[in-house]
């Protein structure tokens, strides 16, 4: 399993970012996928999951209504559209084949700051 996250950056509160996760080494179209995050000094936090076909999406209460998970099975790519970002969304974001966050890639840093 190999996943590579990208798309992070510095954004002001209320802004938006779109994260991508390029997957390889497994049958992506058959795997449920998840995003997790880890803020500095804290443990991993599950953010969102999506079923293998993309039909079902699940969100933590902290991001529901602001984040949208999606996937393109033809491109072996997972996405996370993040809107109305808050300072508390600052973290390293990882994609994974499991909502526990294991295994995961190197992550992409998202910093929300005025």
Describe the structure.
- The protein is an all-beta fold and 114 residues long.
- 0% of the residues lie in helices and 48% in strands.
- It has no helices and ten strands.
- The strands form two sheets. Strands 2-10-9-4-5-6 form a six-stranded mixed beta sheet, with no helix packed on it. Strands 1-3-8-7 form a four-stranded antiparallel beta sheet, with no helix packed on it.
- A hairpin with a 4-residue loop joins strand 7 and strand 8 (77-82).
**Main structural class:** mainly beta
Shape summary: globular
The low-confidence parts are: none
Order of helix and strand elements from N to C terminus = EEEEEEEEEE
- Please work out how many helical segments DSSP would assign: 0
Taking the alpha carbons of the first and last residues, their distance comes to 37 Å
Most strands sheet = 6 strands, mixed
Range of strand content: over 45%
Average residue-wise pLDDT: 97
Rg calc: 13 Å
- Helicity, as a percent range: under 10%
Strand line-up in the sheet with most strands: 2-10-9-4-5-6
Number of strands: 10
Short overview:
The strands form two sheets. Strands 2-10-9-4-5-6 form a six-stranded mixed beta sheet, with no helix packed on it. The chain contains no helices and ten strands. Helix content is 0%, strand content 48%.
SSE arrangement:
Layout lengths: L1 E5 L2 E3 L5 E8 L8 E6 L5 E7 L6 E3 L7 E6 L4 E6 L8 E6 L11 E5 L2
Parallel strand pairs: 2-10
Antiparallel strand pairs: 1-3, 3-8, 4-5, 4-9, 5-6, 7-8, 9-10
